[in-house]
Amino acid sequence: MASHRRPKQPSRTRVTVLTATAAAAVALSAQAAHADPKPTKSEVKAKVDKLYHEAEVATEQYNGAKEKQEKLEKQISALQDKVARGQQELNGLRSGLGSLAAAQYRSGGIDPSVQLFLSSDPDSFLDQASALDQLTAKQTEALSKVQEKQRVLAQQRKEAQDKLSDLADVRKTLGKKKKQQQGKLAEARQVLNTLTAAERQKIQQDEARASRDAGTRVELGNEAPASALGAKALNAAATRVGMPYVKSAVGPNSFDCSGLTMWAYAQAGANITRTTYTQINQGTRIGVGQLKPGDLVFFNGNSHVGLYAGNGTVLHAPYPGAYVRYESMSTIGSIYGAVRI
Asked: What is the pTM of this model?
């Protein structure tokens, strides 16, 4: 007689595992269905361009702080030299008073007025009218020189200390802006790395081609230059077409935006300042409708600058990864202002 066994039921553990596996599969399928699609090459480039713009803002602020640091260092050095020379002069004056005291001592004692000459605080002596009566005209003159020299030295030491404090603040700003700059560039590289190697290479080739062709394809028209100086600066910048953008570079083989404009005007014989924030305050402010070749045009909240080249075009150093080139103003961003040097 055959035995009828009850079918073995799956264990609770096995049911739990199967259920969890199925749930995970469903969740992964749902997640895949709702995952954000991979950004297109144009979307990636737009994001990278935005990050490059933000890096350029930090770069200009860094350049401004760097320029201020260099000026402060020169001023501090000059003040310290003055203090050192002044101290030598003061030592010489005091030495003369000491010789007078020695002579009087050898002749029978030191006059009370001379003792006061040698005190550490001649100011308090001069404030005493009764003591002044004891002084000869020559002694008064000698002590007054000591007093004035001490005042000057105290003022110069304080000025040097104030500038050293300013320098410390500027160096903090430098570090902060450099960190911001590097962070934005690193983020841009990460975004670019979401593309394939072939896509990244295509973007680089497009940038290089745009810069190489800029001088031959652009239609600049026949607008008269702003001045002979502006024409010379623009012609100098034109020789740099195809040179790479490098943050904080001032030429002659690589540039950032304000580095190019400063270099170009230097070749024309005019020294302009280092950053967009200071260049806009040089020369004469003009409206966009008054632009002539050689004028400086500022963009995007005064974080970028180029030389107007005619026919709505500027010659500029665009951003990291790009090269000096001509470009329509309409593709760069909002115009902040313009000046004629």
From this structure: 0.59
